[in-house]
Amino acid sequence: MFSRQLLTIFLAAIAVTLIAASCVDRKDNLVDVGDESEGAYNAHFQNAVGATYDDSDTPSCYKSEPNLKLPGVIKLVSGTLVVKSAMNLVGNTQVLLTLKKDSFLIGTICDHGKSKNPLIPDDDCKFAFCANATTLCTALGTPGTHSLGEIEGDLGINGTIELPSVSSAIKGILKGKWQLELDIQTSGTVVSSIKIPTNEKYIDVDE
Predict the structure, then answer these.
(1) Record's superkingdom (predicted)?
(2) What is the DSSP string of 75-123?
């Protein structure tokens, strides 16, 4: 009788652990993606939602919440993209990073592509973007209103943003909760900006 009770408790604990560690694609790994530019840039995201994946395209969660991986992938799965004027982003575009950790000791290490930490060079605060004519990069330079992801059966845009690996200087402090802002800059001009997650919330990174 006693061993049966132990077995029941053990199985229940496993079930709770599995539920707590679940990562259902397009459910547990969803994060709101903000655009606080209020239309100031050429391209403006509205009501965007992203899904987090590792670099092998496996849904990424931590305690059943979205977990950003570097390297990894964010897929913009819903929302709209409004573009004012035509531009060519392919081959001359980079992302300027703002990275802020939920830590008094670390805080902001990158600010719009510039390092705020003497141990981290500016090059670690930016990465190449739109090297190829992906549907997202093409849409960012095409005037009009575009759907992101699969909305109500609409194929929309494959809004995939590939996030690079980071240097050892950042890797050592990466685990934890962060705010990220990505300024998309082409030919020296910022054309769009997104914040992950929205408002003043934080997201788990590399957990």
Answers:
(1) Eukaryota
(2) EEEEEEEEE-S----TTSEEEEEEEEES-TTT-EEEETTEE-STTS-GG
Q: What is the pLDDT of residues 166-200, one digit of tens each?
A: 988 898 999 999 999 999 999 999 999 999 999 88
- Residue 115 pLDDT more than 60? yes
Question: Structural domain boundaries of the chain?
Answer: 25-205
C-alpha distances out from residue 112 to 28, 79, 91, 180, Å? 29, 24, 20, 10
Helix %, strand %, coil % of the chain (to 5): 15, 45, 40
Q: Which two tokens stand for residue 62?
A: 């931590």
For domain 25-205, the CATH architecture is: Distorted Sandwich (2.70)
CA distance 193 to 112: 10
What would the mean pLDDT of 19-34 be, rounded to a whole number? 88
Instruction: Tell me the C-alpha distance between 95 and 129, whole Å.
Output: 6
pTM (two decimals): 0.85
Per-residue model confidence (pLDDT) at position 4: 54
What is the C-alpha to C-alpha distance for residues 139 and 81, in angstroms, rounded to an integer? 8
Who contacts 30 (Cβ-Cβ below 8 Å, separation ≥6)? 49, 50, 51, 66, 77
Q: Is the distance from CB of 81 to CB of 89 less than 8 angstroms?
A: no
Question: Is the model's pLDDT at 135 over the cut of 70?
Answer: yes
- What pLDDT is recorded for position 31? 97
